[in-house]
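Section 5.1 Outputs to date
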Amino acid sequence: MANTEEAGQGAVIAVANQKGGVGKTTTAVSLSAALAHTGAQVLLVDLDPQANASSGLGCRPEQDQATTYHVLSGAADAASAIVATPVDNLSLLPSSIDLAGAEIELVSALSREQILRRILEPLRAHTQLLIIDCPPSLGLLTVNGLTAADGVIVPIQCEYYALEGLEALRRNVELVRASLNPDLEILGFALTMLDGRTRLSQQVVEEVRLHFGEKVFNTRIPRSVRIAEAPGFGQPITSFDPGSRGAVAYRRLAGEVLNRLNPQAAPSNHREDTTTPRGTRSTA
């Protein structure tokens, strides 16, 4: 990945997986918050029409409020649509259900795959990290997210169908790199929803590591009731329950992400510390 820090630009990271229910939005929100807790200025871009990242940060746009839909359609500029969140150093470009129609409306647009890239480019000068929560699809919105990004984080649920569709996503990343964004790289695969009590979860971890090697982050995100509860209160897990295993895991993941973005500046990460300490319940 190009060293954006040396160029005086913030890094853009897309969180993407066309398979739903893998912890994609939870990872985008919680990772953004964990990165903001380090003191970095972070902007979370909600590119999913379901707008779960927005509601997960307590933001439900009013009828006349600008969202990613208005920004992509040219009806509003990005700076005017950005809102503050309850998390220090974390801002949000919110989404709404209106975004569902954007893929149809943008089909005839000039250089339609690069619209988001052009929108985010001016924001990189004063934002250290821009995180894009892509929709669970391989459509035009996701392609825009990949074209705008320097790197991709792919959440993988530790379940039986974990690897299903990942090859299609990887092919899409290669296509985007070949034709639209030569600097795009897969920053890493994040293992989510790990139930340390089951042999199946461990088998999935082993299989993912076999396929993707060092691209897999060491941190494993546990299956956690507290993580599931946090969006209902409009907070990331790092704010909702800072001492929980989920919050600790996302802070460790944030450290790994920073290390991969700038290996010279960040301390090297230790090998995986599992998310289920001996003698504790995995649903804590």
